[in-house]
Amino acid sequence: MKALRLLEWKSEPVLVDVAEPRPGHGQVVVRIGGAGACHSDLHLMHDFAAGQLPWGPPFTLGHENAGWVHALGEGVTGLEPGQAVAVYGPWGCGTCPRCQAGADTYCENLAAAPVPGGGGGLGLDGGMAEFMLVPAARHLVPLPAGLDPVTAAPLTDAALTPYHAVRRAWPKLPPGSTAVVIGVGGLGHLAIQILKATTAARIVAVDTRADARALATDEGADLVLAPGEAGADVIRDFTGGRGADVVLDCVGNDATLALGAACARTLGELTIIGLGGGTLPVSFFGLPYELSVQTTYWGTRPELVEVLDLASRGLLRAMATAFPLSEAPEAYHRLAAGELVGRAVITP
Ligand code: FEH
Ligand code: ZN
Ligand code: ZN
Known about the structure:
Distance between the termini: 10 Å
Low-confidence stretches: none
EC number: 1.1.1.1
Shape: globular
Largest sheet: 7 strands, mixed
Family: Belongs to the zinc-containing alcohol dehydrogenase family.
Number of strands: 18
Strand content: 15-25%
Cofactor: Zn(2+)
InterPro entries: ADH-like_C, ADH-like_N, ADH_Zn_CS, ER, GroES-like_sf, NAD(P)-bd_dom_sf
Mean pLDDT: 97
Keywords: Metal-binding, Oxidoreductase, Zinc
Radius of gyration: 20 Å
Bound molecules: (1R)-1-phenylethane-1,2-diol, zinc ion
Oligomer: single chain
């Protein structure tokens, strides 16, 4: 079969022939319906070098996957060939308390994980191929009725990541609160939907691109701004002078982090979701009092079940553009050029 593989750091991915996977004991082979192209993949291609991450190439890209059960390894129960499933992407050890809670993202026994801190498309072979080997059946989540793998794939990362960040912030998002989403791309447009579906917050969206701002408006943001308009004072005025209760920075560069800190409320939260590589000076008088500044990494398996439930009821729907596997390199080029609205989904 063909697979889009990252062969070495700082390189373009290439389509090559690889053997179809066979499931070992406890493993499952999934026939891929959709594999999302994540902005993080661009960082894997262009920014990381050997030794910066605990895993590395060569591997098949695609860490945002859904498809159908194709083959069950010995000992696998609870799944049937042909069943539509989402792939929970972070693959931990399965035995530590974090993995037992479905938070493989924060596995504390990385030495026993299939790959330390990674998963399919992140050090092991991912979904940009016809078939994908999943090392444990627990990583598969049956799709609820009404969802198909092509539309469900982006939910496993582009929705799950902001959902985890919003869910953690629910106590700070009662009626009267304000959430700011910086960057209305693959994750940001779903962050707006998740805020609308699960909180009472007013939503401010910021993006450099007119088409992304139009999408934010369509998704129900209450105030949509271009960076030039989005001074902290404009956002603070919108909140009646209090500031934003929660800021989700889906870009994560110096300018967006500075904007997020400047428009945030005391006792607020600034969550860095984007891998833009920005930094934020932290000092006693440099930030609003008791502002929590945190990163976030993906989400938990139970949260993926909740995301799929929201989507099955029409409360979440990823804006997606499908590309055949042969055009996956082009999809990444268009992603890098900022030419895509929403998420690119590869359909092998
Ligand atoms: C991928 C690689 C490294 C850090 C974060 C990510 C996210 O895209 C996973 O959702
Ligand atoms: Zn990702
Ligand atoms: Zn673990």
